[in-house]
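Issue: ligand-bound run for uridine-5'-diphosphate-glucuronic acid - logging full I/O for the record.

Environment: standard queue, default settings, no custom constraints.

Inputs:
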Amino acid sequence: MSRVCVVGAGYVGLPTAACLAHLGHDVICADLDEAKITKLQQGHVEVLEGGLPELVSAGLASGRLEFVVGASEAVTAAEFVVLCVATPEGPNGGADLSAVEAVTREIAPLLRADAVVVTKSTMPVGSAAGVARILQASGAPSTVAVASNPEFLREGTAVQEFLGPHRIVIGADDETVAGRVATLYEGVNAPVVTTSLSSAEMIKYAANAFLATKISFVNELANACEALGADIEEVIRGLELDARIGFGGLAPGPGWGGSCFPKDTAALLHATSAAGYAFELLRTTVAVNTRQRTRVVDKIRDACGGSLDSVKVALWGLTFKANTDDTRFSPAVDIARLLVQEGAVVRAFDPAAGGAAQQELGDLVEIAADAIDAAREADVLVVVTEWDEFRNVDLARVASVMATPRVIDARNVIDLKSAREAGFEYHGIGRL
Ligand code: UGA
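Outputs:
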């Protein structure tokens, strides 16, 4: 078992640290956010991530997981330093690597001679080689190695996916280094794909670009179903059994959001364009995604007779998907803003995102205490996030508190028959 330092205790770093400790490694997880580290030292996990609080508590209790402020102290004994710091979208669409570069400079002179610096944050092709250059220029022992080990974790199910991944990708320019990184995952049953540094970085972007394209495709298909009179849910059932198409990632909706697809598609477009290549399919994937938000707003406006002025909208869901408390780049937040711009009065409810949403939206929308409260007196109900609570709601009760029982189901989660029985005028995405 190895001594590992994980730098960054965010959506990727924290599950990584907790899972590596669970696999038996001695892990120190470092972050600059003192308040977060203090809470983690007490076993308090602030993000909504299934199974994570339990793993953090178990790691702390076993002594295999420790939290510290700042990377310097944490890296000195580490055989592996796993970089999980944020790489947000910069002003021009490219990835902002300043946090990675700063940490690399800080830790360089403190590293063990046999240390491997593993980049897990999503970084443009060539960045890991850049980390190696910064390490050498900043006083790291010349024997320190660099590997790229991208993560494919979805928020909300990160622990499950870390311990049961589809594959483990390890990029290194030296087979021995790749082999050493693979030992971190002993006990995890998954194929290991070993590549060059740059291919590993590209695999991460390719995966997110493909998944985003798959969703944009299904959203386009849903819109085509509306135009031609077919039902997207039936069409999907007939598509996904073809192994070349596959199950999953084919749910139509208000378009993809979150902290990954938007920034990663932008970064790949930026990098390819800077390299002289126009990635037209990906450009269209992004454009379709933006249009999908406005199509939902168009549906709401049409259902309300052509104007949203003073229309009371109940908005169910604010997170970018269910089972997370994250509202970053959420289609729900974009749709709320567009509705308010057109004069609608929006009352929103989300089972997990109250505080975060209030921060994002300020006074633009009112946050209701629960789903029924949001629907009270509303002219239209809009379901934007696919929480089970909305799927299983008592529709007759919802209809009874609304001014007009009318629903725009932007996630196709409401049972059509029950909606109609409850007296709802129903509009889904691509549903007959
Ligand atoms: C995504 C990828 O799925 C992970 O593999 C990757 O590791 C991660 O980004 C990352 O780069 O760190 P995540 O952003 O957590 O994970 O969320 P997803 O579950 O993939 O959903 C992304 C967006 O697409 C959400 O807005 C979701 O509602 C939407 N979506 C997803 C659909 O509209 N339809 C679908 O069928 C699937």
